[in-house]
Amino acid sequence: MNSAAEGTAARPHLLARFGRAAGGLPRRVSTVLHRHPRLRLGFLLGPPMLWLGVAYLGALGALFITAFWGQNPFTGDVVREWNLDNFRTLWESEVYRKIAFRTLGIAALVTVVDIVIAFPVALYMAKIASPRLQRILVIAVLTPLWASYLVKAYAWRIMMSEGGIVDDLGGFLGLDTPGYGLAATVITLAYLWLPFMILPIYAGLERLPDSMLEASMDLGAKTGPTLRRIVLPTVFPAVVAGSIFTFSLSLGDYITVRIVGGANQMLGNVVYDNVGAANNLPFAAAVATIPVVIMLVYLAAARRTGALENV
Amino acid sequence: MNHPTKTERTEAPERDREEQGPPAVSLRGLRKEFGSVVAVDGIDLDIANGEFFAMLGPSGSGKTTVLRMVAGFEVPTDGRVELGGVDVTRQAPFSRDVNTVFQDYALFPHMTVAQNVEYGLRVKRVPRAERRTRAQEALEKVRLGQFGSRRPGQLSGGQRQRVALARAIVNRPKVLLLDEPLGALDLKLRREMQVELKQLQRDLGITFLFVTHDQEEALTMSDRIAVFNEGRIEQVATPRDLYELPATPFVAGFVGTSNVIDGDAATKLLGEPGTFSVRPEKIQLHLDAAHVPTHHAVTAAGVVREVVYLGSATQSIVDLDHGGSLIVLRQNQQSSEEGDVAGRGAHVHLSWSREHTVSVVPASPDE
């Protein structure tokens, strides 16, 4: 075939293509997008990046900046002068130091309680329950997330009241209700965030093949050593992933402690009071940076365990 | 072996006679039901000490379930598992002196190769120094002496397979169980590993109980083979007997290619009713009736329907004048295109020796 023949053969094809492209705007846009992958990526990621940049990081940045400003004690207006007064107050005042450490302690305790409860539940769900029961349990774990936070917190308040259900049931074992206080706060928070611990551990155990457990037993390891040497190391990243949720959610909480915590305060309450009653926004911002910094340290530590690589 | 008799079901190989004592593995009336599904339907089997024994069958035939009951991962619905004469039916896997090479290898990803191999010794509290030496020995046996510090994720499929093997043999079990250990490897590697496994078994003198669906693998490696079908054993025999004297039509069809002659064709061709099997390579194909060897008692005339060139051999499908068809396999000893290869549509004469006609009896579904 000579080149002239090829030329005529190609022409109708070309025409057809132009004809089609002229056919409609959507098609033309599709064609342009198809030819320019970067443009495509821009359209795909543009809106979420904008949101992330402005609404999320912007707000966080504003928070940090405000933390270094002050307040006119008479007018209550924000004074835009850089200083470290807010942080100095936080460090020097024993009350705030105590609240910060209490918050940290509660968050750590809630995380530990959740790990201890979630692990056996997740293990049962992933490795023992039948597929049908497994599905039911996943739904059962997720359902409480649909219920209102306040309803659940108040439910615990009623349960832990004098003469409440915890009092009644505890009576059989010779135990009292913990009453309203730190114990009740830890219990309630642990209940609220439990699904966030169960699900990652469950997912981690799901990925652990049964043959691995069988291999361990086949090689002579009983249940205890198999759990310690095979299961725990495998799900450790999942536990860390779950703890990021339970830890950070507890750090920022201020409602539960109000409802079941008695007179105790957490960092969130200090922020809340300074935004509202005291109207000292710069100080509230300074307090709010504490959990953020703690969380950054925590995430850096979690990263070293490899927990963030396959979440 | 002149006559087509059925092989004894529990015939043990010669070496068994030297080794006195109870068989390494002994299964009695073994049954396993999963809900309403009967996976294993009454298995009786004795595996001698030092034997390389294969359980061969299609998927879902119950062979893996039997292996898992020997390992202790499944509890039988009925029947007994004995290891070296001791009833272990109710024992947990960690109490049994067997080790398993898993189909997916089941290596521990968070441990190094050496730690994987040492695992069995570690949980049995073998001192560290001895652990090290034995693990290194086991790794060298599978030619992975240099790989101890790697992670399983950094190894190829064949290397992982060998780590799984080392991890099992380091414990010096009485019986090594292998669940389709070569299934995930490519053909070339699989062939190499077949030879290596056989050699390893001879070196160690451990009883190997091997599950496979690959008949060629079973034939090349095993001392004896049990053919499984629908939860039952169809036949237990040496590879040679299994191939030459299949006991049932299923065995004849599953192990190699086979011509099954039954019904009318049997009466017309062989002069007696029944079901018979003839291997394709035992049949000779002649263009001229005068060339049929005199010692070939069975002859049949037909027309070639299809000729398939297979490289080392040529396979012809011949429609018989009596009805039915036979597959004939002929070695390509001459490389030139010889005229004596009958083309499609050619009238041919088939013949074979009477002794190659094996009577096969369908396994009765209810014994």
TrEMBL record, chain A:
InterPro entries recorded: MetI-like, MetI-like_sf
Predominant localisation class: membrane
Residue ranges crossing the lipid bilayer per the database entry: 43-69, 99-124, 136-159, 179-205, 226-247, 281-301
Keyword terms, alphabetized: Cell membrane, Membrane, Transmembrane, Transmembrane helix, Transport
Cell compartments where the protein resides: Cell membrane
Protein's GO biological process: transmembrane transport
CDD domains given in the database record: TM_PBP2
Record domain ABC transmembrane type-1: where: 100-302
GO cellular component, one term: plasma membrane
Membrane topology of this protein: Multi-pass membrane protein
Family, per entry: Belongs to the binding-protein-dependent transport system permease family. CysTW subfamily.
The protein's name: Spermidine/putrescine ABC transporter permease
Source organism: Nocardioides silvaticus
Organism ancestry: Bacteria, Bacillati, Actinomycetota, Actinomycetes, Propionibacteriales
From TrEMBL, chain B:
PANTHER family cross-referenced by the UniProt entry: SPERMIDINE/PUTRESCINE IMPORT ATP-BINDING PROTEIN POTA, SPERMIDINE_PUTRESCINE IMPORT ATP-BINDING PROTEIN POTA
Region (Disordered): 1-25
Keywords from the named record: ATP-binding, Nucleotide-binding, Transport
SUPFAM superfamilies: MOP-like (SSF50331), P-loop containing nucleoside triphosphate hydrolases (SSF52540)
InterPro entries: AAA+_ATPase (IPR003593), ABC_SmlMolc_Importer (IPR050093), ABC_transporter-like_ATP-bd (IPR003439), ABC_transporter-like_CS (IPR017871), Mo/tungstate-bd_C_term_dom (IPR008995), P-loop_NTPase (IPR027417), Transp-assoc_OB_typ2 (IPR013611)
Top-level taxonomic group: Bacteria
Keyword Aminoacyl-tRNA synthetase: no
All residue ranges annotated as the ABC transporter domain in the record: 25-255
Bias (Basic and acidic residues) ranges: 1-20
Single Gene Ontology MF annotation: transmembrane transporter activity
Protein name: Spermidine/putrescine ABC transporter ATP-binding protein
SMART domains: AAA
Coiled-coil blocks: none
PROSITE patterns: ABC_TRANSPORTER_1, ABC_TRANSPORTER_2
Lineage, opening ranks: Bacteria, Bacillati, Actinomycetota, Actinomycetes, Propionibacteriales
Nucleotide-binding is among the record's keywords: yes
GO CC annotation terms, alphabetical: ATP-binding cassette (ABC) transporter complex
Pfam families named among the record's database cross-references: ABC_tran, TOBE_2
